[in-house]
Amino acid sequence: MLSIVEIKEESDVPVHQHPHKQAGILLIGQMELTIGEDKRLLQPGEMYIIPPNTPHAVTTTGGPVTALNIFSPIMEDYVASRNQYIRE
Predict the structure, then answer these.
(1) What's residue 28's pLDDT?
(2) Rounded to two decimals, what is the model's pTM?
(3) ω into residue 19 within 30 of 0, thus cis?
(4) Beta strands of the chain (E only): which ranges?
(5) In Å, what is the CA distance from 9 to each residue of 12, 13, 18, 22, 45?
(6) Cα separation of 54 and 68, whole Å?
(7) Which residues of the chain register pLDDT less than 50?
(8) How many CB atoms lie within 10 A of CB 15?
(9) Do 51 and 16 form a contact (C-beta atoms < 8 A)?
(10) CA 46 to CA 71: how far, in whole Å?
(11) What's the confidence (pLDDT) of residue 80?
(12) Whole-angstrom Cα distance, residue 9 to residue 19?
Protein backbone atom coordinates (compact mmCIF):
# COMPACT_ATOMS: atom_id res chain seq x y z
CA MET A 1 0.00 0.00 0.00
CA LEU A 2 1.34 3.44 -0.94
CA SER A 3 0.36 6.58 0.97
CA ILE A 4 1.47 10.20 0.73
CA VAL A 5 1.63 11.80 4.17
CA GLU A 6 1.92 15.53 4.86
CA ILE A 7 2.91 16.66 8.35
CA LYS A 8 2.61 20.31 9.35
CA GLU A 9 5.51 22.40 10.63
CA GLU A 10 6.33 21.85 14.31
CA SER A 11 4.25 18.67 14.44
CA ASP A 12 4.96 15.12 15.41
CA VAL A 13 3.66 11.60 15.06
CA PRO A 14 3.82 10.10 18.56
CA VAL A 15 5.47 6.77 19.26
CA HIS A 16 3.36 3.92 17.89
CA GLN A 17 3.74 0.51 16.33
CA HIS A 18 1.76 -1.80 14.07
CA PRO A 19 2.10 -5.31 12.63
CA HIS A 20 2.85 -3.94 9.15
CA LYS A 21 6.30 -3.52 7.63
CA GLN A 22 6.72 0.15 6.68
CA ALA A 23 9.16 1.77 4.31
CA GLY A 24 9.26 5.19 2.78
CA ILE A 25 11.11 8.09 1.24
CA LEU A 26 11.17 11.67 2.43
CA LEU A 27 10.08 13.90 -0.46
CA ILE A 28 9.97 17.41 1.05
CA GLY A 29 11.28 18.88 4.30
CA GLN A 30 13.36 17.49 7.10
CA MET A 31 12.30 15.16 9.90
CA GLU A 32 13.70 13.39 12.90
CA LEU A 33 12.77 9.72 12.70
CA THR A 34 13.03 7.42 15.70
CA ILE A 35 12.92 3.67 15.06
CA GLY A 36 13.27 1.68 18.26
CA GLU A 37 16.35 3.19 19.98
CA ASP A 38 17.78 4.67 16.74
CA LYS A 39 17.16 8.37 16.05
CA ARG A 40 18.26 10.10 12.83
CA LEU A 41 17.64 13.27 10.85
CA LEU A 42 16.29 12.62 7.33
CA GLN A 43 16.69 14.91 4.32
CA PRO A 44 14.72 14.78 1.03
CA GLY A 45 15.53 11.65 -0.97
CA GLU A 46 16.49 9.57 2.07
CA MET A 47 14.66 6.32 2.68
CA TYR A 48 13.67 4.34 5.76
CA ILE A 49 12.49 0.85 6.67
CA ILE A 50 10.57 0.09 9.86
CA PRO A 51 10.22 -3.59 10.81
CA PRO A 52 6.81 -4.88 11.97
CA ASN A 53 5.88 -4.25 15.63
CA THR A 54 8.73 -1.75 16.11
CA PRO A 55 8.01 1.48 18.03
CA HIS A 56 8.62 4.54 15.86
CA ALA A 57 7.93 8.30 15.87
CA VAL A 58 8.47 11.41 13.71
CA THR A 59 9.11 15.07 14.52
CA THR A 60 9.27 17.72 11.80
CA THR A 61 12.22 20.10 11.93
CA GLY A 62 12.34 23.43 10.15
CA GLY A 63 9.08 23.23 8.24
CA PRO A 64 6.39 20.90 6.89
CA VAL A 65 7.17 17.41 5.62
CA THR A 66 5.86 15.28 2.75
CA ALA A 67 6.77 11.58 2.59
CA LEU A 68 5.76 8.53 0.60
CA ASN A 69 4.95 5.63 2.95
CA ILE A 70 4.80 2.02 1.83
CA PHE A 71 3.05 -0.60 3.98
CA SER A 72 2.94 -4.37 3.69
CA PRO A 73 0.46 -5.89 4.05
CA ILE A 74 -2.23 -3.28 3.35
CA MET A 75 -3.46 -1.42 6.46
CA GLU A 76 -7.16 -2.27 6.11
CA ASP A 77 -8.32 0.21 8.79
CA TYR A 78 -6.42 3.07 7.13
CA VAL A 79 -7.80 2.21 3.68
CA ALA A 80 -11.36 2.10 5.03
CA SER A 81 -11.08 5.51 6.70
CA ARG A 82 -9.41 7.20 3.69
CA ASN A 83 -11.73 5.79 1.02
CA GLN A 84 -15.14 6.43 2.56
CA TYR A 85 -16.18 8.48 -0.47
CA ILE A 86 -15.73 5.57 -2.93
CA ARG A 87 -18.89 3.64 -3.83
CA GLU A 88 -18.80 0.22 -5.42
Answers:
(1) 98
(2) 0.85
(3) no
(4) 2-7, 12-16, 21-28, 31-35, 38-42, 47-50, 56-60, 65-72
(5) 9, 12, 25, 23, 19
(6) 19
(7) 85-88
(8) 10
(9) no
(10) 17
(11) 72
(12) 28
